[in-house]
Amino acid sequence: MIQVFSWNVNGIRAVHKKGFLDFIKNYKPDVLCLQETKATQEQVPAEILELEGYHQFYESAQKKGYSGVALFSKEKPLEVTTTFTQERFNDEGRIQRARFQDYILYNIYFPNGGASEERLQYKLDFYDHFLEELKPQMSEPILVCGDLNTAHHPIDLKNDKANVKTSGFLPIERAWMDRFVEFGFVDTFRKFYPEEEKYSWWSYRMGARKRNVGWRLDYHFVNEALLSKVKGSEILNEVEGSDHCPVMVQLDI
Question: How many distinct structural domains can be found in the chain?
Fold first, then answer.
C-alpha cells in the first residue's frame, strides 16, 4: 500500500520556512508531487535536497521564480520525462511523467487562465494536448495528479454562482473536465466523498481560509486500469504553509 501526495506549495523555498520538513516527517509520503515550486534545483534548500530515503526530480520554468514541479519518491522511477510532443508547452516547467513498475504517474501544474484571453486559450490548448498525450497509454494504469486550476462542479467551490465568469470555473473549462472524465478518468476524492464540500485552495485575501471560502483545484485522477487499486483519497486541510493544502490518494500496489 502506498500513499501519493500532491501539493501546490506556492514556492518550495517559502514552504521550507513554514514546516515543509515537518510535513514530510509527519506524513511520510511514499510519493510526493509538488507544483509551483518557483525554483531551479540549485535554488532548493540543502535541507530538502539532503532528505534521506527519497529520489528527487525537479523541472523548472525558463522564467525565473515561476511555475515548476518536483517529484519525491521512495521507489526509484524507471524513467522520468518532462515534455509533451508540442514544444510550446515545455518551457514553463509544468510537466513530469514518471514510469514506475506498476503505474504511470503524471505530476502536472496546469496553467491558470485568469491573466488574459491569451492565457485562457493556452490553458485550454494545454488541456486538449494533454488528452492527446494520454491516448496511446490508456491501456496502462495511469495516475494524474496536480493543480488543475479548475473547480469541476458547483460543490467544488464556495461561491459558485459568483464565479461563473471567473477563470477556474468557466463553462468552457468545466466542459473540458467533463471530457476528461468521459475519456476514462475518475476523480478519486469524489469516488469516496460524492457530496462532501471540501476545498484545497483559498485566497490569501479577506481571511478566506479561516472562513473556509475556498476552491477544490487539486486532484488525483485515475483511469480504469488503475481504479481497482484505489483504496482511499483525502484532502488535508489541516496542513498549512501554502495557499493550497496537500491532497492524497492511497493505492494498493
Answer: 1
